Amino acid sequence: MELTFIGMIQVVIGILVVFFGSVRSALIFLLVSALFEGSAAIVLPSLGGSSIPPVQFALFFTTLRILAPKGGYVALLPSAIADNKWYVLFAIYGMATAYLGPRMFGGAINVFPMQPDPSLGPFGTVPLSPTPQNLTAGLYLFGAFMLAITSYIFCRVPNAPAALVKALVLISWLHILTGLADILTRGTGMESLLSVFRNSNYSALDNSIAGFVRIRGVLPEASSYAGLGFALFVANAEMWYRSINPRATGLLASMLALILFFSTASTAYVALAAFGIFFLMRAILFPNAAPSGKLFRAAFLGFGILVALCILLAIIPRLPFAVYELIMDMTVGKPASDSGQQRLFWAMQGWHAFLSSYGLGVGPGSFRSSSIITAIMGSMGLIGLITFGLHLKQVFEGSKRSAWGAGYTFEQSLAGALGTAAVFSLVPAAISSPHAVPSALFSIMASAAIALRCLSASQSATPDRQANEAPRGRISPHQLRGRHA
């Protein structure tokens, strides 16, 4: 086990958080660590070069903060487990099958492993058998489960909801700035400053396509940067839609949308299209769910971005053709490409593993997929699909008004925004994730949404029927106790 320089920095910050930090500092520490998905805090050479990412390492210190005698948060642990029961069952079953699956069904099928031998080629396979990646996947699932519990407990603490909004705004700015720094330093001596953060065992893919520089930030590839940026984009867009710190969240949503457009990642284009359809359908079906004037401002903003793009395209004559070629290559032409064929081959492994294991799953880490859906299907079978689906239903809470617009209290509105963001953060994972473990941001935002609804219910004596009515004014993050319409 080797502690990297990132891990050393986290040890210092983590100790400060445990002994002197507040809930706000713990939330910021956890969320900032989640930005470094392509980094390693600890390298494990004995497990085939596997690593522990910064967010999982930060989780160790935030868990200690919960257990610290001065915190007084341990009493919330039973309710955190109970309210996240479907996610807990999902993680526990995944950890169990990570050990049992490849042993029960070893040799039954051939799979493309998570860490293949270069001699295999793009479509080579090996017989299913236990590997160090099964242990790593089990640890990641345990980390996802603990991230959800930690997020829930922190969000049940007074003043934590406002701190969570500020932390999300902060990491959104950091994500944008690392992307811009990546573009500005590409090809210069300063490029190595960002590359030191890509110290995990991930392959760095093409840095440019169709003449465009691919935006990676501190992550190994453009699709990873786009997937993380899309989750933050939806979180900010949904908070703006519900008038939560609207100036900051509206500006961030606009900037993230632009940087996603120029990220050259096909996952970004598909995800933006999916959210755009959802936004349009919501406006048609639930026009009164949004605070007054939001739909008009959203339409005006979209028109303004379109005009700005038209001006840019007019100034640079070659740009329209380059953009057209880029979008066609990364969307329509993607399935016919070598990478598209390889992704389809990886995705189909989940279906074959599902059938070969009689719906039980061959265990997380047993094979490489290209979609979290087929990865869960093949790794954790029917039980994994059902428990994860029930968790998503609980996170979104489509029967509540706050799922579609502003809620009756600040907590309800923020819960609706984060629940929507958590669900939509799975769109990039559904078309690009190699494994069955949801992202750290999903675990944090999904559990926060559940916790905030519980916090709102405990603070208000208003009947459920009235609690689902939306207010008609702006909601400030400082209104922690809720207000009546």
UniProtKB/TrEMBL annotation:
Domain of life of the source: Bacteria
Transport among keywords: no
GO terms for MF: hydrolase activity
Entry's transmembrane regions: 56-76, 88-112, 137-155, 167-185, 253-280, 300-323, 372-392, 413-431, 437-455
Keyword Membrane: yes
Region (Disordered): 461-485
Keyword list, A-Z: Hydrolase, Membrane, Transmembrane, Transmembrane helix
Name of the protein this chain belongs to: Glycoside hydrolase
